Amino acid sequence: MAPSALPSRTFHRHSLLSSPPPRPPPTESCAPRCLPGTVSRRRAAVQLLSAGFLAAVSPPPPSLAARRGRRVLSPEDYVSAPDGLKYYDLVEGKGPTAEKGSTVQVHFDCVYRGITAVSSRESKLLAGNRSIAQPYEFTVGSLPGKERKRDFADNANGLYSAQAAPKPPAAMYTITEGMKVGGKRRVIVPPELGYGKRGMSEIPPDSSFELDIELLEVVPPAEK
Predict the structure, then answer these.
(1) Using CA atoms, how far apart are residues 51 and 42, in angstroms rounded to an integer?
(2) Can you give the pTM of this predicted structure?
(3) Do residues 160 and 152 lie in contact, with contact meaning Cβ atoms separated by under 8 Å?
(4) Distance from the CA of 179 to the CA of which of 16, 36, 135, 201 falls in 20 to 30 A?
(5) E strand or H helix at 213, and its extent?
(6) What is the pLDDT, as a whole number, of residue 161?
């Protein structure tokens, strides 16, 4: 064998062993910005500023009455009754007219600052804790509260008073005159024709409120 061949192979093997290993291809580090759902501080600040700007230019939210579907009226929409009460006919009825001395059945709701405080639609049963929507019956132009002194009546819903509905305001006994069956009227009730110094439910003492009346039935005086 040629003496020069061995050193040549030995030198080549030494070179291969001493050379550094190849580096792996670079990979992207999974920094927090690479994680799904993460936001950088700068982007979060921009989003907060944008949200503040949108809140500033967005229109104010609707009132509680508007959110509940109640029509919002301005003071100029109301007309004055002969006794000075302010009212507005939400719906013009097409049935018989309620006259002074007529016996009528109505549903009424007393609303204070968007909250229904007193309502004939939530009449309480004496036997049980259920609520029923019982129309309120009274005579137009009569003294308030006289019709509440009636006997108990047996009904399929249970034993309840014939006038189980809450006490209506005094304004309802006069402002119903002139309404037609099917009509709905809204009235601004002052404290002296409402619940006075005692208040009622969520209505504070000496407070005005809105009264919504729906006329359901009319019995003329001659037919009673």
Answers:
(1) 14
(2) 0.62
(3) yes
(4) 201
(5) strand 209-219
(6) 45
